[in-house]
Request: fold
Amino acid sequence: MVAPRPAPVDAYPTDTSDTQAETEETLLKHIPDPNSSTNPPPTLQKNVHLQFLVRNLLQGFPSRYISQDASQPWLLFWTIQSFSILQAGLDPNNKQRAIDTIMEWQHPDGGFGGGPGQAPHLLPTYAAISALAIVGRPGPGGGWDQIDREKLYKFFLSLKQPDGSFLVMDHGEVDVRGIYCLLVTASLLDLLTPELVEGTPAFIASCQTYEGGFASASQPYFSASPDSEREGASTLLSSPRPPLGEAHGGYTFCALASWVMLLPFLPPSNAPTINTKTLLRWLTNMQGTEIELGGFKGRTNKLVDGCYSWWVGGAFALLESIGVGGPRHGHEPEAEHAREPHHGDDEGWDDVDDVLFNRKALQEYILYAGQHPAGGLRDKPPKAADAYHTLYCLCGLSSAQHHLVISPARRQAIYDVWKSEPSSSEGDIRKKVFAESLSWVEEEGAAKFVGGTNNRVNATHPIFNLTITHTEGIMSHFYKQTVPPRVVSKKA
Amino acid sequence: MSASSDSIELYADDPEWADIEPVRQYENPNPLAPIFYTEEYRDATDYFRGVVKKGDMSPRVLDLTEKIIRLNPAHYSAWQYRYKVLLALKSPLDLELRLMDELAVKFLKTYQVWHHRRLLISHPQLSSSKSSSFYLTAELRFIAKCLVVDSKNYHTWSYRQWLLSNFFSGGERGKEEEEVWKKEMEWIEQMIEEDVRNNSVWHHRFFVVFQSGIRVGDEDREVVRRREIDFAKDKISLAPSNPSAWNYLRGVLDNNNLPYSDLSIFVRPYAQARSPDAEADEVIDLENPSPSKGAQLPCVPAIEFLADVYESGKSRDDIEKAAQLWKSLANEYDTIRKKYWEYRIKEALEVLPA
Reply:
């Protein structure tokens, strides 16, 4: 192990390097003394975190959360998805309360708002539907069948822009978070159609910056019409749709996950492309060094923050699914890479891994620096814990522990039991969306738990950030399909 | 109910609002994960729900939404409704913009304050008025002022880029456009001078030079490319481990399909330890500035760059040289990214003939 080295300042300090140095100094205090032989292994304080979550859920959020009054579906989603990651669930009574609360957010015009009586908006719609995936069920009072899908679809269409993007709400802004939220919702609820997403892949592609990551949005320039007097005014541009804002971890996750969801909809010719080489380089460069405990940053020359454990750390599985890094394409991952489970001792850790970021270091960041002693997880010390960071640190930990890959065998098994609806002309694309969404499996024997298996958390779906079980539950309901049982594959 | 109700003016006590039926948030008495609202906030939002329900578009709603926004600037429904009321009342949007000056500074991190500005400034009342130039340049000045306080604010930067591309890239504003872009470049130089590691400024420079049209005087793209490469080299020499400058350099090369090998002479001294007699035989090469005296060498981005140069050579010998450099990154200089550097080695070796 190399001794942690401060980021080089080159005897040329600026505000950025000063803040960086301060952060390194704080983080350094959270690295256990390498000379001490009595260091206990790091422990995920599951009970303390569960207490934090239960307190928020049952007693409620303190007044400082008024700033998130327009994000009530998020507060609930962050909390109950954290339960799922921590392998806990709600009792039937609280599940019902959750469903009833969520349904109060549905707007009469379609979509969900940030609270009762709030305007429908893509972000809370995503959070509400994801929360319903966890706690909801079919039938009266179960939430799922009370979602007004027809109005929701119309709401989506009403937000569509000529450049393939979507506003987040009426009079709202365009950004890739909104598109991610729309695509997840539409995927789960069987609302994804070629009509809805026409032009969207090209919009996503246009948000990639020269650094390789993605920006919040891009600016459309429409080429001048042929008879225009100012012909050629916009064709002068080398890039007709400049990204607005620099490459950013949150937007990059949303853009990449959107890209993966949109693959079945790419046109057969002249399809837009993204640069996976610069994307991979940018993603790996977001990982902080040893002195930053291997946490992730969200932008070049910014500070590490626990939430990017998921937004950036979680993006590697997505990148693998489109053929960059990881198990060789076309092989059956389970059979090819079946291994003995690994229990977190340092010996041989590196040899058995084809993941392109430092999984061990990321787990250490979360365990050593991300946990607040009083419960909940955080950006970095000495900050307070909050609902948002609790979830994204936990699912970042999950993505560093588990290795999820697309399994061609699983995909085939899903295809094999697919029931076509005779009336539908879009059967093929529905089938594809359904099968692609559900063919993620955990690579056998590739899980790694820093601090031992007691620190294990649940695996989460790399695109949807729901457990595979919850994803299968809600999707099979809305697609009216049965999902074949999961067979644990054995070593070939 | 609480002691604070004496000091806080509630809509519930205001006769002017007597015709509005306040709407409680939850019918359901037992919601999960509730927020503990202050009385002031609960009162205001109860009346807001009542207003929305009734479709009230009267001027008093501007006061109500302003109050909610001040208590919770992320209340997007209050912003949205406010905008609709402004339009319905045909309110003077320049006054609204001035109110926003105060709110934007107060709530710099909130998306909505920037988006609301965007709605206002793109409304024909301002953007098609005789004074549109005045409003637009005032916006640019205001943004610059905000960036002094928070120099990496994402929303502020993307708002500026939108403003420039939306209003100053079409050629409609003639001379004025030229002036704006010229000033923009000067301002960028100054911002980079202040903090050469501020990646937001570097991104902005890329946007201005390569992604928002071609400026008067910049028609010779070869000259522009040269200028930008020299600019990046110069900033790299000040602080060689600064990834923002290297990423910019790579961006310029990639964007213009230029080979990395063009830069090998420049990069080499940055990719190796300083030789003890470096100072003695230092030759001043203006095109290839040397690392500054305080530079910590070798630096990771230079080793990486040089490896890319070798990799593009494609011969076995080149790839092996690249692999050596990647190994040094994996095992010594950039150990956290060991997996990535090993992946680069594997990928490069795979394309070699057996």
